[in-house]
Structure formats: C-alpha cells, structure tokens
Write a structure and sequence with these properties.
six-stranded antiparallel β-barrel, 1 helix
Length: about 120
C-alpha cells in the first residue's frame, strides 16, 4: 500500500469511528456536533459547518472536543440549512460560530459534545 492509499483508508476509518462514537447513547441532554468544514478561524473563534448527530443545539450551549477535552467553546451563532431532497435521511447541517478557549484548534472531523453550564 502506498502513502496515498494509506491516507485515504485512514481518512475513511476515522469517519467510521466518529460516526460510531456519535451513535453511542449519551446523556439525554447531550448534543453532538461533528465539524465537517472550517469557514473562518482565529485563536478564540471558529465559524464552521457541522452535522448534528444528537440533541438539540441552541445558542449559548457549551461544548468540549472529544479529541481535546481542554477545548471548551460556546455556541455563539447557529444557522440551520434547509433540508433538500438529496439530503433527506442524513444528519442536519448548520453553520455555527463557536467562541472560547481553544476554538482555533478545532479541526475538521472533530466531534463536539455539549456539557452543562455550571
């Protein structure tokens, strides 16, 4: 297997793993967002496209990155994309703005899980 084939296989594997994690039961109030694309990034702000796997995302919610638990961000803006016939059955997509510690370190394919604001 050459390097390019290995990278393609690894990319596919990580998608399968993330989807498997997202499908696991969570706290009834947990919301899971999967980052698919980055639109704009700075150290403390990220504008990105996310898939919503579970829960109901709302402005003001706090999220941690599964791969980097020291990243804590607040959902500052949320715009749901309307469903289209070709996307029926897929996870809903939204453009979101996340602000807070480590927002600039969030990468595509990162799974974000909500946590209670104490």
């Amino acid at each position: 297997m050459n390097d390019q084939q290995f990278c393609i296989a690894a990319s596919h594997d990580i998608d399968v793993i993330i989807h498997a994690i997202a499908a696991q039961p969570a706290l009834p109030t947990a919301t899971r967002l999967y980052v698919t694309q980055i639109a704009k990034v700075s150290p403390d702000e990220l504008v990105c496209i996310v898939k919503s796997f579970t829960g109901e995302a709302r402005v003001g919610m706090l999220f941690r990155a599964v791969g980097a638990p020291d990243i804590e961000v607040r959902l500052a803006a949320l715009h749901w994309y309307p469903p289209r016939p070709e996307t029926v059955g897929r996870a809903p997509l939204a453009k979101v703005t996340l602000v807070g510690h480590g927002a600039g370190r969030i990468d595509p394919k990162e799974l974000l899980v909500s946590f209670p604001d104490h």
